[in-house]
Amino acid sequence: MKVSLLLSSAYGMRGDVRSTLNLAAALAERHEVEVISLRRQKEKPFFPVGQRVAMRSVVDARPGVRRLFPGGQVRTEVALWRLLRNLRSDVLITSRPALSIQAARHAPREMLKIAREWSRPAVPGPVKRLYPRLDAVVTATESGQEEWVRLLEEGGPAVHAVPDALPGGPWPRSRMDNRIVAAGGRWVPVKAYDRLIRAFAVVADKRPDWRLRLYGGGPEERRLRALVGELNLHNHVYFMGTTPDLAGEFAKASIVANTSSSEDLGMNVLEAMGCGVPVVAFEGARGPTEFVATGYNGVLVPDGAGALEMFAAALLALIDDERRRRSLAAGALDTALRHAAGEVGEQWEKLIADLR
């Protein structure tokens, strides 16, 4: 069976990219798999790609590369239409509504077409009109499945829930003895790293031997660095930059924090759990709420009045209780097992077989 997975860009540092590449590697163990990137901006993808996974792009936007279709959205769309009409795969899995709509319009009718979704579309009209041409919608969580069932209503394709896949092992394991709190992802407003820094100021005041390591990059960096200076946290908060091996860095920590206020795919949460590290996060953020269970694999903090103080208190409670940290770490590992690449790959294979 040949499977094609279509991304807006396979070269970015995003949770949906990480999840798609993990799925591609899992399916490639038994099938012919390719990842198609609508745009290619870099020489190599940020995240690792499975050895058996083929890569190609629709538009090569690397600096200095002469391309058939120069800059311009219309040109890119034309190139995508041509690719879809001539695609010869058994299964096409798209990763965003904009791509799924184009697949519904232009991919061969006999091809199995599946939309992989993590959040609701910003403009639901085209989705409601064109998604009935798809064979299925697959979400990463049961709550996402319920949202898409309500959105598509009757007449739309069936909506299934299959979890995100973690990369294949072996995974690094935290020894839980480093006095480090870690966080990772894009430094953008919705991730609310400023809240984490402010909460950690309380932690640093009471437990000055603990450190906060921030992994990633993005437009918020200058503002976050200024905040660290304003709070005099230079010796407590460290900007570690981007890394394709976030799991390896999480394994050096004893706690992973996530202060996202709303949307978050939760891949960083799963990666932390795969390393046996408990997670502290706010209630209400989509990804963390789906995976973190207070008292089992981490702590969910109510997001409202006094939220920063409660978050700091949750961190301090784990810092001061090593036995509890290790107990939550065991629950985190158990949670990660349900997202192992092999198991998730088998769920996708069964779904595809049922749809065919």
Which SSEs are present, and which pair or pack?
Blueprint: E1 2-9, H1 15-27, E2 32-40, E3 53-60, H2 73-86, E4 91-94, H3 97-106, E5 112-117, H4 124-130, E6 136-139, H5 142-152, E7 158-161, E8 180-186, H6 193-206, E9 211-217, H7 221-230, E10 237-241, H8 246-250, E11 255-258, H9 267-274, E12 279-282, H10 286-291, E13 298-301, H11 307-319, H12 322-337, H13 341-355
Summarize the structure.
The protein is of the alpha/beta class and 356 residues long.
Large-scale geometry: globular
> What is the CATH class of the largest domain?
Alpha Beta
Can you give the mean pLDDT?
A: 90
Main β-sheet: number of strands, strand sense, barrel status? 7 strands, parallel
Task: Name the poorly predicted regions.
Answer: none
Which structural class fits the helix and strand makeup?
alpha/beta
Order of helices and strands: EHEEHEHEHEHEEHEHEHEHEHEHHH
Distance between the termini: 11 Å
> Widest sheet: strand order?
3-2-1-4-5-6-7
Number of helices: 13
Strand content: 15-25%
CATH architecture of the largest domain: 3-Layer(aba) Sandwich
The CATH superfamily name of the largest domain is: Glycogen Phosphorylase B
Commentary on this structure:
- Helix 4 (about 125-130) links the parallel strand 5 (about 110-115) and strand 6.
- The chain starts with a strand and ends with a helix.
- It has helices at about 15-25, 75-85, 95-105, 125-130, 140-150, 195-205, 220-230, 245-250, 265-275, 285-290, 305-320, 320-335, 340-355, and strands at about 1-10, 30-40, 55-60, 90-95, 110-115, 135-140, 160, 180-185, 210-215, 235-240, 255-260, 280, 300.
- Helix content is about 40%, strand content about 20%.
- It folds into two domains: about 1-165 and about 340-355, Glycogen Phosphorylase B (Rossmann fold), CATH 3.40.50.2000; about 180-335, Glycogen Phosphorylase B (Rossmann fold, 3-Layer(aba) Sandwich), CATH 3.40.50.2000.
- The protein has about 350 residues and is α/β, with parallel strands linked by helices.
- Helix 1 (about 15-25) packs across helix 13 and helix 6 (about 195-205) packs parallel to helix 7.
- The strands form two sheets. The protein has a seven-stranded parallel β-sheet with strand order 3-2-1-4-5-6-7, with helices on both faces.
